[in-house]
Design brief:
The chain is an alpha/beta fold and 319 residues long. The protein has one domain: Rossmann fold (3-Layer(aba) Sandwich), CATH 3.40.50. Helix content is 30%, strand content 21%. The chain is built from 9 helices and 14 strands. It has helices spanning 44-53, 79-88, 107-116, 176-181, 187-194, 208-226, 265-278, 284-293, 297-305, and strands at residues 3-8, 22-23, 35-39, 62-65, 91-95, 125-127, 133-137, 146-150, 158-164, 166-168, 172-174, 230-236, 258-262, 312-317. The strands form 3 sheets. A 10-stranded mixed sheet has the order 2-1-14-3-13-12-9-4-5-6, sandwiched between helices. Helix 6 packs across helix 9. The longest helix has 19 residues, at 208-226.
Length: 319
């Protein structure tokens, strides 16, 4: 069964529900809205199904950006779930080293974590800043003029941003925009984002809004670099308030939502947060509090202002 609904999402961190839903096909003054596809059942088959629904075929050397998970953590996307999709697109799992220490701060440790978590058993894993970094220009940013990424990112022809949607201690939530900004940035690039462009050696002391805006700006640099050679898929399961970069994340307190995908990363992240807010699961209050206490929706406001995408979208259910 395929169902469509057009959603005109309200902006701002305080929005608590999906609002202004109207029947699909209703004319919009803003023209055609981006589609966000949804499969509520989380299976490897539905991952492939939702990728194919996007209508944009991976080609050439394909980077699949997924978090390999901090040692000690357990909420990251499981290799058994993503294996079929990664292998269908003939993808390489790509990552960059962290900037906060831990078990993935250097290439040797990072590759060990990827192996221990089962990722090297399903595909090649490329730590893209193992041998250096490269710069991508940021257009229209308030804080960043450049994004520093792993050098090997430039070797790929097509990118699949395969994200685990969940909470995050600093950003409020982690989805497509965080995965393509912090995740593709080298260690120095991560520090540049965290410091709102001030430093590659420390996290500095920016305001929360400046950090969130810098994260959106780095994501725009990646999106601009890729053009039409990128797709965005998010799996909203194991919905902890903490990120997969946490070695001791809190256990999820709400049920899984499903798999979502779009050609618009802003619409995708907005749809994920909207579905959390509109869920009947009482446990959602913890994740909503995490998102709003960190002003997480400001990331999407800034990304939209930069022209990365739209917080208005058409939700297409494939189940």
């Amino acid at each position: 069964m395929l169902m469509t609904m057009t959603l005109a999402a309200s902006g701002g961190a305080g929005a608590q529900n999906v609002r202004n839903a109207v029947p699909a096909g209703t004319p919009s003054e803003e023209g055609a809205l981006p589609k966000v596809y949804l499969c509520r059942e989380i299976t490897s088959e539905n991952l492939i199904r939702i990728y194919e629904a996007l209508g944009r075929k991976a080609h050439g050397r394909v980077a699949v950006k997924v978090s390999t998970g901090e040692p000690g953590g357990h909420n990251f996307l499981q290799p058994a779930l993503i294996k079929d999709l990664v292998q269908q697109v003939r993808g390489t799992i790509v990552e960059c080293n962290t900037a906060y220490g831990g078990g993935r701060a250097d290439t040797e440790s990072h590759l060990k974590a990827a192996a221990d978590h089962g990722f090297t058993a399903i595909a090649a894993v490329d730590i893209m800043d193992a041998e250096g970094e490269a710069e991508l220009p940021v257009t229209g940013g308030r804080h960043l003029t450049r994004d520093i990424v792993g050098k090997n990112f430039l070797d790929y022809d097509f990118t699949v941003i395969l994200s685990h949607f969940k909470g995050h201690a600093m950003g409020g939530f982690g989805g497509a925009i965080k995965n393509m900004s912090i995740g593709i940035a080298s260690s120095n690039g991560k520090r540049l984002i965290h410091s709102a462009g001030a430093s590659t050696t420390s996290w500095g002391n920016p305001s929360q809004e400046e950090f969130l805006e810098s994260m959106a700006e780095a994501a725009k640099a990646v999106a601009d670099h890729c053009g039409d050679d990128i797709v965005y898929i998010s799996v909203a399961n194991n919905l902890s308030v903490d990120c997969d970069c946490d070695s001791s994340p809190a256990d999820p307190e709400m049920g899984d939502i499903g798999i979502l995908a779009s050609l618009d990363p802003v619409a995708l992240d907005r749809a994920c947060t909207d579905l959390v807010r509109s869920s009947d699961d009482h446990g959602k209050i913890h994740l909503i509090e995490r998102i709003d206490s960190r002003h997480g929706m400001h990331t999407l406001d800034h990304a939209e202002a930069l022209g990365m995408g739209s917080q208005r979208y058409e939700l297409v259910e494939l189940d």
